[in-house]
Design brief:
Layout (H helix, E strand, L loop, with lengths): L16 H4 L1 H10 L6 H4 L1 H5 L1 H4 L2 E7 L12 E7 L4 H6 L1 H12 L4 E8 L16 H10 L6 H16 L1
Parallel strand pairs: 2-3
Antiparallel strand pairs: 1-2
Helix pairs in contact: 8-9
Length: 164
């Protein structure tokens, strides 16, 4: 009779979340006419930071194929912030060049614009720390606090609150 050995667990093969959700996102992007989601996810690299700050791809509209005819290029619909729409429209040739260079062929023939706020959340910048003079002024009014780190933190907090 042989002894039963406990089985050792095999190596854990963790998969990146992007691989697991690939099919979910691929279907959503396909509904908007995007053959590859990279146009949306890498928009800032493709269009450039100046353009990407004020415009984002909304969808691609492909014309219906005509039998026996070559496929017509798509229309890329961009969501553009209102005040910058005219400026982005003047950059249309540059955008078309960059997008087609990304695809490696003339996939996009023209651009269409929809004026609306961009969907991405604006990144909030951290405010600068309060200046040393205002921190010292608040620290004087704190009274007797034995813990110096606590006193310093409270003084910075008080100076930041007074500034705002």
């Amino acid at each position: 009779m042989s002894k039963l050995r406990p089985m050792k667990p095999g190596p854990i093969s963790a998969k990146p979340l992007s691989l697991l959700l690939n099919d979910v996102f691929a279907e959503a992007y396909a509904k908007q006419g995007f053959a590859a989601r990279e146009l949306v996810t890498r928009w800032a690299q493709i269009a450039g930071p100046e353009i990407a700050a004020h415009a984002e791809p909304l969808k691609m509209q492909w014309p219906r194929p005509v039998e026996g005819q070559p496929q017509e290029p798509a229309t890329l619909v961009l969501r553009v912030e209102g005040p910058m729409a005219l400026e982005i429209q003047h950059s249309a040739d540059v955008i078309l060049q960059r997008v087609n260079r990304f695809f490696g062929w003339s996939a996009v023939g023209k651009l269409a614009f929809r004026q609306a706020p961009l969907s991405r959340a604006r990144r909030q910048t951290r405010p600068a720390p309060p200046d040393a003079k205002s921190v010292a002024a608040v620290a004087e009014r704190l009274g007797d606090i034995e813990d110096e780190q606590l006193k310093s933190a409270l003084a910075r907090l008080g100076a930041a609150i007074k500034r705002n």
